Amino acid sequence: xxxxxxxxxxxxxxxxxxxxxxxxxxxxxxxxxxxxxxxxxxxxxxxxxxxxxxxxxxxxxxxxxxxxxxxxxxxxxxxxxxxxxxxxxxxxxxxxxxxxxxxxxxxxxxxxxxxxxxxxxxxxxxxxxxxxxxxxxxxxxxxxxxxxxxxxxxxxxxxxxxxxxxxxxxxxxxxxxxxxxxxxxxxxxxxxxxxxxxxxxxxxxxxxxxxxxxxxxxxxxxxxxxxxxxxxxxxxxxxxxxxxxxxxxxxxxxxxxxxxxxxxxxxxxxxxxxxxxxxxxxxxxxxxxxxxxxxxxxxxxxxxxxxxxxxxxxxxxxxxxxxxxxxxxxxxxxxxxxx
Length: 339
Hints:
2 strands, two-stranded antiparallel sheet, 13 helices, mainly alpha
C-alpha cells in the first residue's frame, strides 16, 4: 500500500516516498477530508429525531411522552363518568381498605416488584383498550391468525370483526405467564414492546392479529428481561399446534419491525408502571392491600436501618474527602479585632 500522505496528495501517483512535511500545520491541512473526497458520514447525534417529534411518535422510548393505552382509555372513562352523573348512579360500595389506629394496610406492589396478578390484569386491560379504540385495521400477514393459526380449531369467519373481551385477553396472557413462569416486570416490558411495534411499524392491534402480536411481545420480553429466558420450543409446548419455524419467523419479523431497538430505559419502565396504576384506578381494579404484620414490620425496619447505615457511610466518605479543605479554612481561623 502507498503512503497515506502521498495517496491523499496524488491518488493516482506511484507509492513513492512523500515530500518532507515542513510543519505540523501543513500535515493537518493535507490530511483533512474535503467535501469532494467521498460521501459525508453523518454523526449519530445528527441522525437522532428532534425531541418534539420523538415525543409524539415514540412514546415507548421517551419518559416525557404519554402512553398510548392511557390516552385510548380516557374516552371510555369520561363516557362512564358522564353516564353515571346523568343517571345519578352511585359508584357503589367502597372496596378500598384504609389504615386505622389498630390496623395498617400496605401495598406490596412496587415499581421494582409489582404484583403479578394485578399487573397482568392491567396490561391486558391496556391491550383491550388498544383493540376497542383502534383507529383502523392496519396489519401484516405474519400476525394474521387466519394465515398463521395458533390452534387447529376452526377460526370463525367473523374473527376479524368481533372484538375480544378483557377476560379472554387476560386468560390468554395469564396462561402464557403461568406456564412459562414469567415475572410481573416482564408483563410491563411486553406492553412497552407492543406499543413500540404499533408506533414503529404503523400497525393497529385488532381482532385478527392481537394474539400473535401479544405472543411475539411476550416472547421477546421474556428473552430480554428475565435471567432465565424461555426458548421458542417451550412456547410450542404451551401452544401445542404452533411450530418452531413459525415462532422463529414471527420473532425475526418482530425484531425487524422494532428496528432491533429492545432497550427499555428505567424512566420509561417506571412511566408505564404508574400509568398502569392510573388505569387500574380509573377502572376500579385495586391492587391488593395486606395488613401489616409484626414479621413484615420487622423486615421493613431492618431494611430502613440498612439504608440509613449506607447513607451515613456515604456521608462519612464525603466528609473525609473534603476534610483537608475544611482544615485549610478552619486552622487559620482567628478572632476579629474591632476598633
